[in-house]
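Minutes, structural biology subgroup

Action item carried over from last meeting: produce the C-alpha cell record for LuxR family two component transcriptional regulator (Palleronia aestuarii). EB confirmed the sequence was re-checked against the source entry. Recorded below for completeness.
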Amino acid sequence: MFDAGRRSAAVRAIPKIFDVPGEEADHPDPNRLRAAKGGRTALIADDDEFFRMALGVILTQRLGFSEVIEATSLDDAVDLLSRHDEIALGVFDLDMPGMKSASSLRAVREEFADLKITVISGSRRRDDILMALTSGVHGYVPKSLGATQIFHALSMVLEGLIYVPQSITMIEVEEAREPAPVRPTLEGLTPRQKEVLELLVLGKSNKEIARRLDLGEGTVKVHMSALFRNLGTASRSATAALGGKLLGG
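Output recorded by EB:
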C-alpha cells in the first residue's frame, strides 16, 4: 500500500513511465473524445493498484473522463455498477478475485446494456480473446501494449468500434485440444455468489435476495447468471438442487 506522499509522487511519475502522449500527438477523432468530458465516469476493475493508477491517468488526462471509480474484484465492480448509472466505460482485468474467465462478463454485459466494456489483460491467448468477444465485450487490450497503444484502443471502443489485438490470428497447438470435463464446485464462486446461492437454496426470490443482501435486483440477476455458468445449470431449480448438494457437502 502507498502512503499519501508516495502515492502522489507515483501519480506524477506515471505519465513519464508509461509515455502518455502529449497534446501534440495524433489520436482518433478528438472532437468525439472531447465529448466524454461531460461528467462521464469510468470504472477500472483490477486488483493491481499501480496499473489502476496508470490507467486512470490515461482515462482522465487523455480520454477526458471526469471521474474514475476503482474496484479490486468482480463483486465490487458489479456492486459499483448497480449504484452508479453514470458509468460509461468499464475496464476489467481477467486475473482478479471473482473473475473465473472472460465469460464472467457476459452477465455484466447483459444487465448493463449501455455500458461499454473492455478487457485489459495480461493474457494474449486466443481462446481468452474469443471468449471475451463471445461474451459481448467491446474490446480486448493486452497489458503488454504501451500507453499510447492502450489509449488508441480505448479511443476506438469509445467511438463505437471493436478493438482486438493481432494475436487473435495466432493459433497455439495446445488450444486445439478438447478440455477435460470439470465437476462443478463452490471453489470458483465469489463470496457474493455463494451468498446468493445459499438464499436461492432456501427458496428466496430475486427480490427477497436483493432485500436480504442490500443489493439491486439487477445485481442479483448478474450473480444468478454467473451461478448458472459456473455450475453448468440452465434454470433456478437446477441451480438450487445442485447448490443444496454442494453446500451440504
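Discussion: The CA atoms of residues 1 and 49 lie 8 Å apart.
Next step: EB to file the record with the rest of the batch.
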